[in-house]
Every structure is written in structure tokens, then in C-alpha cells.
Amino acid sequence: EIIGSVKGPLEGKKVVVTAGPTREHIDPVRFISNPSSGKMGIAMAKAAQSLGADVTLIHGPLSVEKPDDMHSVSITSTADLFEAVKEYSDADVIIMAAAVSDFTPAETFTHKVKKDDAGDAILLKRTQDILAWLGENKKEGQVLIGFAMETENLVENATSKLKKKNADYIIANALTEEDAGFATDTNRVLLLSKDGEQQFEGTKTDIAIEVLNTIFR
Ligand code: CTP
Ligand code: CA
After folding, report:
1. Pocket of ligand 1 (CB under 6 A)
2. What's the first-to-final CA gap in the chain, in angstroms?
3. Which residues form the DNA/pantothenate metabolism flavoprotein C-terminal domain (predicted)?
4. ipTM field
5. Burial category of 114 from C-beta neighbours within 10 Å (exposed 0-12, middle 13-18, buried 19 and up)
6. pLDDT per position as a tens digit, 19-63
7. Ligand 2 centroid distance, CA of 70 (Å)
8. What is the spatial distance between Cα 63 and Cα 20, in angstroms, rounded to a whole number?
9. Ligand 1 mean position to 148 CA, how many Å?
10. CA Rg value for the chain
């Protein structure tokens, strides 16, 4: 007798994962960015897929190979990322693992700026907080998962992001740890929700699976 295939907890669910850094161009050859590799986001995307989800990976410039068996959308700036996320904002689950730039140059030049003409300051403006926008526009039953990068007061700062952004979960990274954070293969995170907190450590791959199993089991 055929019993049927084993179904994962995310079977039939649309999951959007953002990963990697954004780049905010000053001119065609210069930009503001951060050291995000995309590893944690890709681990989350693969984990969601292995639990049965229909995954869309929206990613900035990655330092690692992206999965070739997954629908993906490539972006550069925070503004691009916001546009792409809005297009997929009806997803059942959205995981904001991208290291989104908080600032972008007030003016972007289409030609390379000559250093003698540049002056000694670059005027910046704030970018859209995409997770906060998703929190304000949350769909019925949608699950919003954000990350938090902190170098101090991890629990306090990450809890405040959970509330301020109306996220259901925040995965908090302590950047002070040697084996955790940007571009490492391992990580140590705290999963925060309104129900409390739980710690996970190990490879980013293992953490991604364990965190999603904890949330969706
Ligand atoms: N995030 C976002 N849009 C931004 C900035 C951040 O969607 N413009 C998301 C990140 O993808 C992450 C969460 O918000 O899921 C927290 O990002 P983090 O940089 O830790 O917090 P911020 O709210 O930007 O605050 P700060 O950098 O000042 O600590
Ligand atoms: Ca930030």
C-alpha cells in the first residue's frame, strides 16, 4: 500500500528569503556596502525548501554560490530590494536575512566623480526600512522573520526591533562572538518571539533548519 510522500511543515507555502548585502552607489565605480556574504540567508532559503516550501530568494551581490534549484531575483540597492519584496509581499512567510544598508547617498552621480571635485563629505539619506514596511502591511496569517545584528545589549536591542517592526520572530546575532556573524560558516543566534527566547548554535545550515523547525513544527 502506498501511504504517500512525507510532507514537510512548509509544504505548499510560499516563502520569500532576502539575503546578502545591498550596494548604495555614489557613482558607477563607488558604493557603500557591508561584509555580508549571503551565507545565512542562503541557509535559510535551502532549509525552507527542504521543509517543502516554494522559495523565492531575493539577493544582493553574494560572495558564495547561490542554489541553482531555486527561483531567485538579483538586486543591487535597498530601493531595488524594496521593489522586489513588494512584488512578493503576499508570501506566507518572509525572512529578511539581507544586510540592508541603512543609508544611501543623497545624490547618485551617473559619471565617475573626480576626486578633486568631490569635496570632503558625502551627504546621506535614510533608506526605507523594508521589514518595518512589511510589519505595517502584514497579511492575515503571514509570518514575518527578521534578523538583528548587535554588538551590545543583544536581547534588549533585538526585542525592541521585534516590537517596533511588528515582526513575529527576530533571529539575533551577537557580533562580538568570534565564530558568529558576517561571512562565517558557524553562527550563534537567539530566536526571539512574543513567547520568549531560545538559543541555537552550530553551522549556519544546521541553525537554519533548527530555527525553521522550531517555528513551523
Ligand atoms: N532591515 C530592513 N530594511 C532596512 C534595514 C534593516 O528590512 N532598511 C531589516 C534587516 O533585514 C533585518 C532587520 O531589519 O531583518 C534588522 O536589521 P538591523 O540592521 O539589525 O536593525 P536596524 O533596524 O537597521 O537598526 P540598527 O542597524 O540601527 O541596529
Ligand atoms: Ca541596520
Report:
1. 78, 96, 98, 100, 102, 127-131, 146-149, 161
2. 27
3. 10-215
4. 0.99
5. exposed
6. 999 999 999 999 999 999 999 999 999 999 999 999 999 999 999
7. 27
8. 8
9. 7
10. 18
